[in-house]
Amino acid sequence: MKIILNVFFILVVAVFCLNGCSEDNTTTGNNNTSTNQVPNKPKNPYPADSSENIDTNVIMVLSWQCSDPDPNDTVKYDVYISNTLPVGSTPIVTDLNNPSYGLGIVAASTNYYWKVVAKDNHGGSASSNTWRFKTKLRQ
């Protein structure tokens, strides 16, 4: 009977440790946790997705909205742009501190496809959808 109780005790301890003895990766106090949440997906582009007849006589500034659910994270942005799909894998600019980029004067009657990747200071990232705008004929 004593052997059966010892075996039962060892099994209970083993099951408990398998389910409850793991290291706790959450830090308490100061609202800090060791898990990082990735930035939210960039949204609300300017020019708006599928815009047509964009003026080519002004400097084009691309902009978007983005935030990070972790209030103390810093977010930087990489911008990708192309005249064809898919948008390439090489950004035209990296590590922007603000959610905008001065593209400059754009070509007339041209489709532009672009996306933004938001990156936080803990290695998390989120990519926007691919957005499109088309410029009007130069007059």
Radius of gyration: 25 Å
Broad CATH class of the domain at 43-135: Mainly Beta
Count of DSSP E strands?
9
Oligomer: single chain
The name of the CATH topology of the domain at 43-135 is Immunoglobulin-like
- Unreliable spans: 1-31
Average pLDDT reading:
82
Compact summary:
The chain is built from one helix and nine strands, in the order H-E-E-E-E-E-E-E-E-E.
Structural description of this entry:
The chain has about 140 residues and is mainly beta. It has a domain at about 45-135: Immunoglobulin-like (Sandwich). The protein contains one helix and nine strands. It has one helix at about 1-20; strands spanning about 45, 50-55, 60-65, 75-80, 95, 100-105, 110-120, 125, 130-135. Strands 2, 4, 5, 7, 8 and 9 form a six-stranded mixed β-sheet that branches. Strand 7 and strand 8 form a beta hairpin. The longest helix has 19 residues, at about 1-20. It is elongated and about 55 Å long. It starts with a helix and ends with a strand. Mean pLDDT is about 80; it is low at about 1-30.
Set down the secondary structure blueprint:
Layout: H1 2-20, E1 43-46, E2 51-54, E3 60-65, E4 75-82, E5 93-96, E6 100-104, E7 111-120, E8 125-127, E9 131-135
Parallel strand pairs: 2-9
Antiparallel strand pairs: 1-3, 3-6, 4-5, 4-7, 7-8, 7-9
Record keyword descriptors for this entry:
139 residues, mainly beta, Immunoglobulin-like, 6-stranded mixed sheet, 3-stranded antiparallel sheet, elongated, disordered N terminus
